[in-house]
Amino acid sequence: MKPVLRWLWLVFVSLVLVACSTVKTASATSPSSAQPTKKTVVRNGAYFQKDDLAEHIPVNLNLVPDAVPQTEPLIKAANLPYAAMGMSFRPDTSDKPFKATGRASWYGKKFHGRRTTSGERYDMYAMTAAHPTLPIPSYAGVTNLKNGESVIVRINDRGPFHKSRMMDLSYAAASKLGFIQQGSAKVAVERVWPANGGEVATRPVSNPAGTAG
C-alpha cells in the first residue's frame, strides 16, 4: 500500500475509534438525566420525610387546644379487619380501656389534605392521630415520656404500619409534645372518654355510642 493511502487509512480508523468511544449527552427524558428519588431518612426508628416539615408554621401552634372527647358513633368501614405492609390488623371496637407505651412518630404536609381512614381530610394542624387498632373515632391521651408534655388527640386514621412505632401523630400534636425535630419519641398512650363537667375519664362512663355506616 502506498504511503499516502496508508496514512489516509490510519486517519479514517482513528476517527471511527474516537466516535465510538465518545459518551453521548443524556437527554432530558432519558433515565440517566432523571433527578434521583428523594429517599426517606430513618431517624430514631421513625420514617422522617425531609420535605414533611411545614413551610409556614402557624403563629402560636402550641396554643392549639387539645381534642375534646365526645361520644361519637363508630365508622363501620374504618373498623373492619384489614392488612397492610404484610401485617394483619383487627380494630378493637369494644369499650375496653387501653394503655401502652412505645414510639410515636408524626406525619405532616406530605399528607395534608388527603383523606384519612375515617373519610375526613387530614389536617396537620388539628389534634389528631393514626393508630392501627384503636376505634375510629376515639380519643387518647399521649404523654412524651422524655419531657412530660401531654396532649389529647382524636383517632381518625390508621397507621403507622411499622413494627417499631405505635402511633402517628399530627404535626400539631407532635409539636406540642416537643419532638418535631427528632421525628419520633417514646410515649405513653391511654384511651380516654368524655366525662361530666368537661373532664376526661380513662374508662367509659356511659353506654357505647354504637356503630354507623
Automatic annotation (TrEMBL):
Keyword field contains Lipoprotein: yes
One BP annotation, GO: cell wall organization
Domain spans labelled RlpA-like protein double-psi beta-barrel: 100-188
Cellular compartment(s): Cell membrane
Superkingdom in the source lineage: Bacteria
Keyword annotations: Cell membrane, Cell wall biogenesis/degradation, Lipoprotein, Lyase, Membrane, Palmitate, Signal
GO terms for MF: lytic endotransglycosylase activity
GO cellular component, one term: plasma membrane
Gene3D superfamilies according to UniProt: RlpA-like domain
Family, similarity comment: Belongs to the RlpA family.
Name of this chain's protein: Endolytic peptidoglycan transglycosylase RlpA
Organism this protein belongs to: Paludibacterium denitrificans
Gene name, Swiss-Prot/TrEMBL: rlpA
